[in-house]
């Protein structure tokens, strides 16, 4: 009975933690390669469609119209598939990033899920769209969706950038603590010790600076999400850039302190 | 008609100024046997080849000798690759994480697609 309970416990609690991250990583790799492949396919098809369309407007024959519609449908389908793949990658990254807070993660994932549902419906409608009118209707649908597509993409990319910087900051903090401990016990002269402790203080200052920049960027992000603004302010990009520069500087300090 | 001279400008009485004297045939000297020459040439050739081979062999031997005489480099005490400490490894990992967190880097940008692609567009372009 105990063994059975242990099995059930591990199946319910342990298994998902062990298997899901690996699965997520595998599917992300697969999705990224699919994304790259679809970009190439879309480019080829778009070129062919443009040629077919210009031919149709020149000849105005039924066969040229049918050919243009056939190619247009293929291109729109590939475009839909590409957009779906792109947003699937973003959703997967947001879901699996440990440095995005739960509430922000939920908001981002919910928006992505709704958008993906809309894109999938569009893809289904394209399957039955064969004539020029229905194809144009679907093309118009995506045209209307453009702002939303770009906004959600910008927001998600921004939160992922912030989360990546937070991860690096956390690692820098851990390294600083370890270096501080190492200096205390290192067999070096008192003068050298004082010199190194000054370096650690400098590192702490850099860490505070990074934290300030990231907090500022997060505030900008929250505001942009709340306003559902299509523009992530340039101020946020500047803050992220400064945070990254300081992080690189922090790594340099850490390396110096180890010498 | 047969004894008539064809050259009408020459006189019958005119004696030739110089008589062609027949050169007495030289007594035939017995030529030396060609076989002997051939043997001498082949001998000389063989000696030359042998000499070339000998010189080449000497040169090769000398080179080998020189190479064996060259001082062999004293084996340097090989330093074991320093194993980075846990702290160094931590900093190395940090470096990688920071590199990957560059906000300017984006491995999956928004797809470069035409979101305004439709039949009408082509017509407008044409007009």
Describe this structure in words.
The complex is a heterodimer of chains A (259) and B (127). Chain A has 259 residues and is an all-alpha fold. In chain A, 92% of the residues lie in helices and 0% in strands. The N and C termini of chain A lie far apart (57 Å). The mean pLDDT of chain A is 90. Chain B is 46% helix and 0% strand. Chain B is elongated, with a radius of gyration of 52 Å. The interface between A and B is large, with 60 and 33 residues.
Helix amount of chain B: 40-55%
Largest inter-chain contact set: A-B, 60 and 33 residues
**Shape category of chain B:** elongated
The biggest sheet of chain B, with number of strands, parallel, antiparallel or mixed sense and barrel status, is: none
Instruction: Specify Rg of chain B, calculated over alpha carbons.
Output: 52 Å
Assess the beta-strand content of chain B as a share of residues: under 5%
Q: What proportion of the residues of chain A is helical, as a percent range?
A: over 70%
Distance between the termini of chain B: 115 Å
Largest sheet of chain A: none
Helix count of chain A equals 6
SS element count, helices of chain B: 3
Tell me the total number of β-strands of chain A: 0
Helix and strand composition category of chain A: mainly alpha
Shape of chain A: elongated
Query: End-to-end distance of chain A, in Å?
Result: 57 Å
- Structure summary, number of beta strands of chain B: 0
Runs of chain A in which pLDDT lies below 50 for 5 or more consecutive residues are none
